[in-house]
């Protein structure tokens, strides 16, 4: 009897993730039917590559949201890290290690500050990270309102390089998502994230060091966001103060589509990956049928509201 009921039980547990991937398959098929251009493998590959930046940033947001928090400074972290890396590289390959270390260092410092503000100073996550967003924006625009620096050739070429016909960028992302999945599902830290996001009081009684877990989630989020800023540099070539301007809303949208509860404790890394790809293919679909940008935002908003409604109904049941 248990073997018969197992598939249904698994489907119920993974319903949010399956919904995100079902939507992705639908968009892929719809775009393929309506767009001759999209039937080209090269276009599909470019769509996947274009999703890597938002995907990595969405994964960063996942670790905070699933633990019951939120980080609104994620786009600004990506901006500062990208600008710092571009300036330090200055078009020279030998500067790549220093630039990467500095960019990730920016993420580490911001993550530590955000974590301390939320867990030690006890400022609500929304207010603390919203303030950090403006601080980092001010730093970026104070330094320059124009593009700065330039990526080193070897670093910039990562976007076009391939191994055995497979883009290096996609191989990097497969490894990255594999690590995220392992951390979230196969480690004690990952299980503690869900416990803290689901019911922090109960988690504390169960022996989970909730403050440390919450603090670590902000550090991980900012470091991964900084890595996303580095990744975007492979496409933009230069650091720009508006690089992460739309990243916040995009990542939260990807997280919601991926089935992660904004109240914490629910969702999966695989679902967030699906949500990121949905946004990439949705943009490709809009471009294919020449939908006005304003209608794009309207449709994306309706999708988010519809999904939130579906998830809310499931919770009530």
Provide a short characterization of the protein structure.
The protein has 317 residues and is an all-alpha fold.
Please state the structural category: mainly alpha
* Number of DSSP E strands: 2
Order of helices and strands: HHHHHHHHEEHHHHHHH
> Which strand-content bin applies to the residues?
under 5%
Morphology: globular
Mean pLDDT score, rounded? 87
What oligomeric state do the depicted chains represent? single chain
Instruction: Tally the structural domains.
Output: 1
Distance between the termini: 24 Å
The biggest beta sheet, please? Answer: 2 strands, antiparallel
Major β-sheet strand ordering:
1-2
Radius of gyration: 20 Å
Can you tag this structure with a few keywords?
75% helix; globular; 317 residues; two-stranded antiparallel sheet
Textual characterization of the structure:
This protein is mainly alpha-helical. α5 runs parallel beside α7 and α5 packs across α12. The mean pLDDT is 87.
SSE topology:
Elements: H1 2-13, H2 15-34, H3 41-50, H4 52-65, H5 74-89, H6 96-119, H7 125-143, H8 153-156, E1 162-163, E2 166-167, H9 168-186, H10 188-198, H11 200-205, H12 210-236, H13 247-257, H14 269-288, H15 293-316
Antiparallel strand pairs: 1-2
């Amino acid at each position: 009897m248990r073997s018969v009921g197992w598939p249904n039980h698994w489907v119920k547990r993974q319903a949010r993730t399956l919904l995100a991937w079902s939507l992705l398959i639908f968009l892929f098929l719809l775009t393929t039917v309506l767009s001759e251009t999209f039937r080209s493998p090269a276009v599909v590959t470019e769509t996947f590559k274009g999703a890597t930046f938002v995907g990595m940033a969405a994964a960063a947001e996942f670790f905070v949201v699933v633990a019951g928090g939120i980080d609104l400074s994620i786009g600004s972290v990506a901006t500062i890290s990208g600008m710092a890396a571009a300036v330090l590289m200055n078009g020279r390959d030998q500067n790549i290690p220093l630039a990467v270390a500095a960019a990730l260092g920016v993420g580490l410092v911001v993550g530590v500050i955000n974590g301390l503000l939320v867990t030690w100073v006890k400022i609500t996550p929304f207010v603390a990270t919203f303030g950090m967003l403006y601080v980092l924006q001010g730093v970026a625009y104070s330094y320059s309102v124009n593009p700065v620096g330039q990526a080193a050739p070897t670093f910039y070429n990562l976007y076009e390089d391939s191994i055995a016909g497979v883009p290096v960028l996609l191989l990097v992302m497969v490894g990255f998502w594999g690590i995220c999945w392992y951390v979230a599902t196969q480690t004690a830290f990952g299980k503690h994230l869900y416990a803290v996001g689901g019911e922090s009081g109960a988690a504390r009684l169960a022996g989970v060091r909730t403050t440390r877990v919450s603090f670590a989630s902000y550090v991980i989020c900012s470091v991964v966001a900084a890595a996303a800023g580095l990744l975007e540099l492979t496409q933009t070539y230069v650091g720009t103060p508006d690089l992460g301007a739309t990243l916040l809303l995009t990542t939260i949208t990807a997280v919601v589509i991926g089935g992660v509860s904004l109240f914490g404790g629910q969702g999966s890394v695989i679902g967030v990956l699906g949500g990121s790809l949905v946004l990439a293919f949705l943009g490709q679909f809009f471009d294919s049928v020449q939908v006005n940008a304003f209608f794009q935002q309207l449709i994306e908003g309706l999708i988010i509201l519809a999904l939130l409604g579906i998830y809310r109904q499931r919770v009530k049941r």
